[in-house]
Specification:
By secondary structure, the chain is mainly beta. Helix content is 0%, strand content 53%. It has no helices and 19 strands. It has a four-stranded antiparallel β-sheet, with no helix packed on it. Strands 5-6-7-8 form a four-stranded antiparallel β-sheet, with no helix packed on it. Strands 9-10-11-12 form a four-stranded antiparallel β-sheet, with no helix packed on it. Strand 7 and strand 8 (74-79) form a beta hairpin. The relative contact order is 0.10.
Length: 203
């Protein structure tokens, strides 16, 4: 529920990886047959985040847990304490950035190989899946009763916001960046913002 499947290819064969509330499982793309299953859900009634894969390493959605994948099985290699927040992970330059919960929502940074948590920063982002843009992190941010978009510069001890815009976006949206533009869901529409030039009114 809410979690999207992820394509994965190994030794020339294509697979589809899925994460439910209780299971991580792998399906052969050509036949639809289930290849393997592994405990890897949230333990709740839903899994709102989607799995993310880099090479043979998979990070589950909603909870910071890593698996090493093969065509025969998935082997858990690390897990970090953190409650369900409905986010998918971002793997960028050997680090995992992901929102998870400890009394309140925060953004964590984890070494993808070792599972060592480098930092966890309170009240940085909301229920969002971060995106990498020019060495920075783009994510939704809380602002009173509303939400907006924040651009963060990561460092060894946390992130610093370098730019932000507050508008009627959804807290669970994942901003997409392409060709100098940001596309984001609001409550009633899909909005696109041009960052490449000064804004001009268009009919």
């Amino acid at each position: 529920w809410h979690s999207s499947p992820m394509a994965w290819e190994k030794d020339g064969k294509k697979y589809v990886l899925c994460c439910t509330d209780k299971l991580l499982f792998c399906v052969a793309a050509d036949t639809g047959a289930v290849v393997w299953e592994a405990p890897g859900g949230t333990g709740r009634d839903a899994n709102h985040g989607s799995p993310v894969v880099q090479g043979d390493i998979l990070i589950t959605g909603s909870h910071p847990t890593a698996f090493r994948l093969s065509p025969e099985k998935a082997e858990q290699i690390w897990s970090v304490e953190g409650g369900f927040r409905g986010s998918s992970a971002l793997i960028h330059e050997g680090l995992v950035y992901m929102g998870y919960y400890r009394k309140e929502a925060g953004l964590g940074c984890i070494d993808v190989k070792t599972g060592k948590e480098l930092w966890w920063q309170l009240k940085v982002t909301e229920t969002t899946s971060p995106t990498a843009v020019d060495g920075k992190i783009l994510a939704t941010i809380p602002n009173g009763d509303g939400y907006g978009i924040g651009l963060f510069k990561p460092a060894s001890t946390g992130v610093t916001m370098v730019a932000s815009s507050i508008f009627d976006c959804l807290n669970c949206t994942t901003p997409a960046f392409f060709d100098g533009k940001i596309v984001v869901r609001t409550r009633n529409a899909l909005d696109c913002y041009d960052l490449t030039a000064k804004a001009t009114a268009k009919p």
